[in-house]
């Protein structure tokens, strides 16, 4: 995560994508969801909001499958932040209900 600490989000995203491929290969879905959350955050930081939403929604599907309510709430919170950044406050508000 040296690249992240330096603010090099694009390089970090590439490295994290490689990590995602690994967890996909070994079929470790809970950790894959965590990696998707990181990718969603990086895309959000880069203002790639549609890609960010895609990653967060993919994570939500996995968290729902594993009944992980804590991380499910984190993912929904992050989606609310993305919608707020896009200026879509009604959709953002719904994420917090």
Question: What is the assigned CATH homologous superfamily?
Answer: Tetratricopeptide repeat domain
Structural class: mainly alpha
For the residues shown, what is the average pLDDT? Answer: 90
Low-confidence parts lasting 5 or more residues at pLDDT below 50?
A: none
Named CATH architecture: Alpha Horseshoe
Shape: flat
Radius of gyration: 13 Å
Strand content: under 5%
Query: Could you name the CATH class?
Result: Mainly Alpha
Briefly note the CATH topology name. Answer: Serine Threonine Protein Phosphatase 5, Tetratricopeptide repeat
Features:
97 residues, mainly alpha, Serine Threonine Protein Phosphatase 5, Tetratricopeptide repeat, 6 helices
Structural commentary:
This protein is mainly α and 97 residues long. It has a single domain (2-95), classed as Tetratricopeptide repeat domain (Serine Threonine Protein Phosphatase 5, Tetratricopeptide repeat). 81% of the residues lie in helices and 0% in strands. It contains 6 helices and no strands. The protein has helices at 2-5, 9-25, 29-45, 49-65, 69-85, 89-95. The relative contact order is 0.12. The model has no long low-confidence stretch (mean pLDDT 90).
Q: Secondary-structure map with pairings?
A:
Blueprint: H1 2-5, H2 9-25, H3 29-45, H4 49-65, H5 69-85, H6 89-95
Helix pairs in contact: 2-3, 3-4, 4-5, 5-6
Outline of the structure:
The chain is mainly α.
